[in-house]
Amino acid sequence: MRFAHIVPSGASSPVLAVIDGEDAIAVPDLVPDGPADLQTLIESGEEGLSRVRRAVAALTSEAADAVPRHPLSSVGFASASNRPPLILAIGLNYTAHSSELGLKTDAAPTVFSLWPNSLTGHERTTAWPRSLSEAVDYEAELGVIIGAPARDVSPEDALDHVWGYTVVNDITARDIQFSEAQWSRCKSFDGFTPTGPFVVTADEIPDPQNLHIWAVVDGHMVQDGSTSQMVRTVATLISHLSGTTTLLPGTLISTGSPGGAGYSRDPQIFLRDRSTVTVGVDGIGELTTHCRIID
Length: 295
Known about the structure:
Strand content: 25-35%
Largest sheet: 11 strands, mixed
CATH topology of the largest domain: Fumarylacetoacetate hydrolase, domain 2
CATH architecture of the largest domain: Alpha-Beta Complex
Number of strands: 20
Number of domains: 2
Shape: globular
Distance between the termini: 43 Å
């Protein structure tokens, strides 16, 4: 199944919706007292998701007419991950990206947190002051959302704890990244972590290590890779992180970016005022961000 947080035409706040073809159906319209956001659905466990599945399966042509549908072309999108208890990001998880940044892939994963103010949605505008950074970069990443609590799980069992997958653009102020010892601030400006537009349940992605991942900036393909190129697999990352921290339902893990970052290019490509960047993962979706630089 595919879910999104949509903002229907005329509405002021987002609501969780099931994606049915080119339409979205708000979950509270589909399920009596149904969850209005993804975090609530995840916390409801298997039974909560099963209720939604049963409601969708019961949508006969006659019943479907009674449920409001919102064409995807007519709605806005909020962050696909809206209230995660924790946002973890993995750095240097593709050898090509580590090399192009001039950084070494260590024996253990590079882990840092992202701040919740950085979350935003598909087709939203991310703005930042020119005085803070003129070296803002893109990073296409596979996002993993935890379902069942994970504590000290093995790699063999780790994927059983995944609720679903989404697309993340890990936007980064490179000048700040290389001037500070930690990476959270340079990646956590307001709007620097777009996610979505969709979350795809784990059963729809049989192998998270076999997905095409890419980025396009202002019409030019700049990243073109595969999750098979990860240094550490999704399962390995979950196992490693759960060794010291209980990964609670809804935890978002951004799993690293392939080669092709703007910082490494000659000439360098940074996000400019009015740039448009689209990052995507095949089987999950395409996530577009519009950029504005404030003088």
